[in-house]
Amino acid sequence: MSLKDKVVIVTGASSGIGETIAKELADANCKVMLAARREERLKSLAQELGDGVTYHVTDVTDAKQMQDMAQATLDRFGKIDVLVNNAGVMPVSPLIALKLDDWDKAIDINIRGVLYGIAAVLPHMNERESGHIINIGSIASFHTMSNFAVYCGTKFAVKAISESLRKEMLGKVRVTIIYPGAVDSELIQSSNDEQTSNRLESSFNTIPPTAISQAVRYAIAQPNEVSVNEIVVRPSSQEL
Ligand code: NDP
């Protein structure tokens, strides 16, 4: 199915998986709204990708900014077909390190950010009886690991929210959750526990973010009556 002129919002589009999803969808002739906080990156990506791509500086932890970004999408493109809730951080550390600020940040970005994204587009999709919300979960949505307690907690929550949303919006809004394994990106830098980050960086083989962007493209490309609900994409050498 052609993706031409589908209007897609991508949060966390300034780097890594989100940036690659934006490129993949622009290549498929979608209209893309890039959302994240680092304006310079968004601006240069929008310029690189051409007329069908624009950006709105947005902090996903601020519900008003998310509403404004959704409104800017409607003003520019006239509709919202797909939201990709991708923005996320992974501040890993043992619980005993008591990094409460990191815990709050992960909860605010990874859970509240996803909910505020849903809030920003759901009334529009409900009214049109058409739409697609794609949430980026993680292998950490169904496995727990030492030092990942809070990250896993947030990604378990993304799974629960996605499944509930699907059940509530049957026949109106398609819901997809994608669970990536280790992907090459800047994510590891969002952890300020150097010891854990170093250990992680040396212990994981990663796959390129195109492995995830292609899954997003596949899910969007299905006909309206087909809802791809869950996709797991791991490096073939990853055990967990
Ligand atoms: P990156 O660090 O490269 O990208 C994270 C993105 O999130 C950036 O664009 C960043 O933009 C954005 N972001 C962070 N905080 C906010 C905020 N408050 N408001 C708006 N945007 C924000 O990491 P990835 O590309 O790897 O991560 C993307 C998603 O994939 C995350 O949800 C992550 O949990 C998930 N994931 C990644 C895996 C991996 O191995 N890389 C594995 C499994 C899941 P900016 O700072 O400009 O705001």
Describe the protein's architecture and organization.
- The structure is a single chain.
- By secondary structure, the protein is an alpha/beta fold.
- The chain has a single domain, classed as NAD(P)-binding Rossmann-like Domain (Rossmann fold), CATH 3.40.50.720.
- Helices cover about 45% and strands about 15% of the residues.
- It has seven helices and seven strands; from the N terminus they run βαβαβαβαβαβααβ.
- The protein has helices spanning about 15-25, 40-50, 65-75, 100-130, 150-170, 195-205, 210-220, and strands at about 5-10, 30-35, 55, 80-85, 130-135, 175-180, 230-235.
- Strands 3-2-1-4-5-6-7 form a seven-stranded parallel beta sheet, with helices on both faces.
- Helix 1 links the parallel strand 1 (about 5-10) and strand 2 (about 30-35).
- Helix 1 crosses helix 7 (about 210-220), helix 3 packs parallel to helix 4 (about 100-130) and helix 4 packs parallel to helix 5.
- The two termini are about 35 Å apart.
- The structure holds NADPH dihydro-nicotinamide-adenine-dinucleotide phosphate.
- NADPH dihydro-nicotinamide-adenine-dinucleotide phosphate (NDP) binds near residues 37, 89 and 180.
